[in-house]
Amino acid sequence: MSGLRADIIPGGPDRAYDPSPMRRPPLTPQYKWGEKYITDMRHLPITHLLGFSKFKIMSRYRRGPAEVLRLLFTYAGIPFENPTLRAVDWKCLMDKVPYGNLPALWIDHNIYGEIHVVTRHIARSMGMLGATEAETLVVEAVLEQVRKLRESEILQKAFEELQERVDDNFEQAFTVILPQHFAFWEKHITDGCGPFIVASGMSVADIAIFDFVYQYRVYLPIDNVLVNFRHLQALLNAVRTNQRLAVYIKSVFAGVR
């Protein structure tokens, strides 16, 4: 083994994690196959990105905001590495990660930050942002709503109040904020004849809703609100039982139901 950076074995008890993929020829046999058999060459870059690249999702958390991207890769059958970085790893990588925060996605020899933007780009490449412009607008809107919910101070304060004494934030979260968003999403489901947000089928919006509910139900009694939204329950069940996702979901979301 050479001393090149790309040949350093990742991880180890006395060595910081190095996310660099192992070296390989710049033109892989798979890429040559793509050049030969893909008749419409406009699709070659996307095919190369999703089929022949090496992905690593770099995060300090087992789930967190990068979980939607993990579910997308799993749904598409795209292999990826999923290292959980230690504090020492993060200190070594901090200057190399765009915008200085995690999660980030390593694609071959490049690191891309702002995981929500990366997730949407990958979803677009997979055709998971809706089949029409109208559907794309709906999917993008739902993704933005989920992102804002995840970053909402009210949900964080509601959790803190749940541990001590229920107060205004908890009441607002469970009588206003969550029911309002669940009603928005249920209307999209019924408008599209269900069980998903858009009529063309499962999109990244459905995956994001599933991820939000199943991550937060561990900390907050979301089921008390969800019981009033049967169409949204059907969406969650459709994602949970999807044959491409079921095994992964069972392994990640303990006690999933």
Automatic annotation (TrEMBL):
Alphabetical GO biological process terms: glutathione metabolic process
A Pfam family it matches: GST_C_3
Positions of the GST N-terminal domain: 53-130
Annotated region (Disordered), positions in chain: 1-24
SUPFAM superfamilies: GST C-terminal domain-like (SSF47616), Thioredoxin-like (SSF52833)
Superkingdom as given in the UniProt entry: Eukaryota
Record-annotated GST C-terminal domain positions: 132-257
Protein name (Swiss-Prot/TrEMBL): Glutathione S-transferase
MF annotations from Gene Ontology: glutathione transferase activity
